[in-house]
Amino acid sequence: MSVQIPKTLEDFPNSAPRWVGRGVPRVEDPHLVTGRTEFIDNVVLPGMLHAAILRSPVAHARIVSIDINEAEKLPGVIAVVTSDDARRWSHPEPTVPEEWGTHCLAGDKVRYVGEPVAAVAAVNRYVAEDAIELIAVDYESLEAVVDPVKAMEPGSPLVIEEKGTNVMLQRVFTWGNVDGAFGDADRVFTEKFRWHRLGANPLETFGVIAQWDPVDESLTLRASVQSATHFGLGRAAVLGLPSNKVRVIAHPHGGSFGGKGGTRGTDVTALLTRKAGGRPVKWIEDRAEYLTGGGGQAWDRHYEVSLAVKNDGRVTGLDVKLLDDMGATGEGFGAISTAKPLASFTGPYAIPVARYDLTIVATNKLPQSPYRGMGPPPHNCVLEQMMDIAARDLDIDPAEFRRTNFIPKDSFPYTIASGNEYDSGDYEAVLDKALALADYGKLRERRDQARAEGRCVGISVVSAIEPGVFDWNAYAIVGVQGTGVPEGATVSIDIMGKISVRVGFALEGQGQYTLATQLVADYFNVGFEDITVVCLDTHSAPPAFGPGGSRLGVALTGAVLGACGKLRLKLAKVAAGLFQMDPEQVDLVDGKLVAKGVAGVEMPMAQVVGTMLARSDLLPPDVDPRPEATHVWTAPGRTEVDEEGRAKSYLTAAQAVHVVMLEVDPETGLVEILEYCVVDDCGTRLNPATVEGQTEGSIAQGVGAALLEEYVYDEQGQILTSSFMDYLLPTVYEVPATKKGIVVTPSPFTPLGAKGCGEGAMHTTPAAILSAINDALAPMGARATEVPASPNRLWTLIRAAQQPAAGE
Amino acid sequence: MTAQQKISVMINGTMHEAHVEPRTTLADFLRGELALTGTHVGCEHGVCGACTVLLEGRAVRSCLTLAVQVDGASLTTVEGLEEDGKLHPIQQAFVEEHGLQCGFCTPGFLMTVHELLYENPDPSEDEIREALGGQICRCTGYQSILRSVRLAAAKLRNAHVAGSTQHS
Amino acid sequence: MKPARFDYAAPDTLGEAVSLLERHADDDVMILAGGQSLVPLLNMRMARPELLVDLNRIAELQYIREDGEWLAIGAMTRKRAVEESDLVRRRQPALLAATRLVGHPQIRNRGTVGGSMAHADPAAEYPALALVLGAELRVVGPGGERSIAADEFFKGYLMTAMEPVEILTEVRVPILAPGTGWSFVEVARRHGDFALGGAAATVRLDASGSFSEVRIVLFGVSGAAVRLGGVEERLVGQRPGDALFREAGATASEGLEEPLSDVHASAEYRRNLAGVLTIRALGEAVARAGGREPGQEERR
Ligand SMILES: Cc1cc2nc3c(=O)[nH]c(=O)nc-3n(C[C@H](O)[C@H](O)[C@H](O)COP(=O)(O)OP(=O)(O)OC[C@H]3O[C@@H](n4cnc5c(N)ncnc54)[C@H](O)[C@@H]3O)c2cc1C
Ligand code: FES
Ligand code: FES
User: Fold this and answer.
1) What is the least distance, in Å, from the CA of C133 to any CA of chain A?
2) Pairing between strand A353-361 and A315-325?
3) Predicted confidence band at B162 (pLDDT cuts at 50, 70, 90)?
């Protein structure tokens, strides 16, 4: 009998499941609300030192000399490292695209403000910071490249001279007869957009404790790391160590959103512990370091987008030209964000052909990192603006315009122009529900009445796809190798009948340990208190990637249920031996091993487990005596990319419709959100409360993106937003309360039909807000094309619209 | 080198004596010297609120207070909220209403809500938002935190009513 | 982000504090009040005093008293105490309104009245309030005590008329005379942020309904809070009305010198804001002078 992963809750060996599908309290929370969760900065090791990193104050300069004498002399300083150590003990950072990396400590020159130049390990952080002030660096300033357009011009200063160019990647992908579609179109709309840099900013920055073992030349890293395996492999490559000599112990972390970063700082810390003879060294990135030199900057984009449209409202072609300013190197892996849009390039629409003209350029800014959504949020935002521009021109209601172009519900699985396959959906149902929830007709009346009073009020109805369950192949076009992202779990029962679930990722906030607990509790018909979920280090964990790419909920479900299924077979086999029956005749039912059709022949699970652990002599010869099983789940059916970058990449396609009403104060450019409605379909909701949390949290980040968050660099490449006074995160005042509704079309491809939903509304909210702003501005003939739509930007547009003659 | 200064401070009902360098922030003192690591540090410049503790019952930023300044004072940190090993009603409310995801901001929110609800047992929506406006949560989008605060207020009011009927 | 080393003293009395400052007149000494502006600067090592003199133990600097026509507020009074003061609520509602716009409760629990005045941030509410109300600031130093009118006290971007060895001890705010209308409005990117711009106004109307007295101050739009003397003069004697307010707004906007420009807003934006806020503040203040609460509160 092969392992069956349940497709629905009915397939569980439990007649009355109690946990899956309910908004149960999270197992993570008691530790968190009492302050007991072991975040990395809570950890103290014997003899531990503290690191501080000296960072470049300038964007582009040659390093003439570095003098560390004074720093080394400061009492309490144990080790100081510079590029000499980096060259001795490490290789350049791995990058995407490949070979756009430098050593973790700058050598010949610095390439961005915040780039690590030297570092100190001392008895405490205060002394370490005293010491870095004593390091004298002589810089010979070079002209900085800050504008990506200028960076491409011949004669521009080069960020990495050896490359001979600042263009990291330039390629055009054509899917179908795009020229034909545009030639045949009744109308063609073209607009330029600018999406400014923003990023993750989890409340906890990155932190690591590195400990070098000089005897066997191995490294242990305790870190607030999102994907421990991947992180460990990267560090081994950089530090020139065999992969089994780097052990990563992931700690729970205070959020990540893809932008935890920390790789370069970890490599620097690894040099320090090695130089300090193996004393453990802790480096906790502070907020200024995070903002200027961490993993928190993403998506610095210049778009030019065209849409081919027929007079009946059908969109027949999409042409997207993107120039992304990647910053100085590819070390943050930010470039994958330019590839992921392929997974949902044409959104929820049946747009038959499309083109993607992609250019990635290096400048003297912090290298980009991923951020929640990994690239599609700006893409969706510009696509939705184009949809509105077309609808407005054709005088079609934006909701109906979208309806006309939606992929029909009977055409799933549906392959989009850029190659990915959407699993399932009913987009019209989601739209209808959203319009009803928002009371769309009334909403428009309210808007029109407000307009009649001279107020600047706008409504948007937008839709977007959230690709779920990522696969490496989605990033093939920027040089990422491989297909398939495994996630493993081990389910193990002890002699008392208590269950442990062993995984390879640490807590991050999405409630995955609760999900694992729900699944196991229902599978074996036990209580929450009977289950523990533990995170193992990279030496012992099953294959794991962890959270990211809206995948873990689905992948973990597959892994845990697969392990449960294997264990079920094993227990049945053992019980059958004890019952002296055929294994096929025994099964797990409601937590007991039962002889099918033979009343009264049954045995509690704990007794079977007890036999396995205590009396291996009684077991059938081919049974592994450990009452545990491991399953590694990988999204099925993923394909290699073709020559135009097309592949089945992300496994699921969740969809959402947001309806927003907001008001712009024309005198100040301030935006106030008046109504926010969201309906989404992410398949089966395994824990509705945590899904709702993901939605609400991602709406907040979307609001931040649309209105507040922006990293600003000046013309010298100096960063002007190095504190939370200037990089503005949304507070309780800026995030609207939402009306929410759901539609459920289970995914045919995933265990229990769940779809990836962690990135959530980040895919839709920026588009929804910008669209509503544009609806508000439309009567005066203004159009906002920059994100964030700051008060200054909106006011400038409005003023220009109101004084058309001025300046002409 | 700057002389260390001796301080004594009451924290969660326990008296602590220590020698600190004047430049040591209260946050670092609590976390580093006393291992009260429930107080988190997210920005060290007063904006995020993760480090919020109660100083004489008032919510303050421990990253903007020096340890030397709390000599003779009385503090409460998240470690001081539980009563008899049971979650405080505010903590319980956050669990029940899913008022947290990563939980890094949570101790700061709990302390702020503690101040709010002990001064104002039945706060209006505006008053809740005013209290929370200085606390940043990157995960939840605040809606579940607002629900948690409302539930906590109800729990505390009920506890109060129950307490007073018991006494009478 | 950890402070550089410093020495620390926390005198119990004002006298001790004064003599400490006098003794260390040649050293790099800084006064620590609520720490809500200074400690971030210490943490970022942008302020690096040799000696920090902490005023927090000086109980005699924490009070709010009615003193004839004035509210006398000790420099070390927390903003939260101002917010909760019945006296302030009754006697000087503009002070209460301004206080509620300063940061967040957690900041106001520590931040002091004197600290905001002494820091003189161009976008801070308190200096603007002091200017519009005609507050007096009392300072003591080795040479004794002196009283400085708000108009004289604020000297520009983060600059005051105080000597480094002087301590601000008291802020004296006139009690709001009956019949005076006031307004305190600002625009910030988020609730509680330092303002992109703000305006404060007090007005009195004569029997005919014309302005008999007008004071308007703008803050956050240029290097320091500024009183709009010219606008005030032109308004006196005129009957309030939208057209007049618009004219005042235009004058305020055009007359704004060296508007600030930063990552949040350009100089043009702030120049515009100067006009918009002048109009809004006048409207509110006139409504209150007429005994009405302004119909619409500022959104942020
Ligand atoms: C998150 C956050 C948000 C904020 N938002 C705002 C806001 O919206 N509006 C606003 O106005 N402020 C805001 N602030 C600043 C806050 O109001 C400060 O409290 C205030 O600026 C300074 O007061 P303090 O008592 O904290 O002074 P400190 O920070 O202790 O001192 C500030 C300066 O004044 C000097 N000083 C203090 N007291 C005296 C005295 N008695 N005599 C002589 N010199 C003295 C100090 O030496 C120092 O140079 C914010 C702060 C934070 C952290
Ligand atoms: S760490 Fe203190 S407010 Fe952020
Ligand atoms: S729960 Fe993560 S920051 Fe609030």
Assistant:
1) 26
2) parallel
3) confident
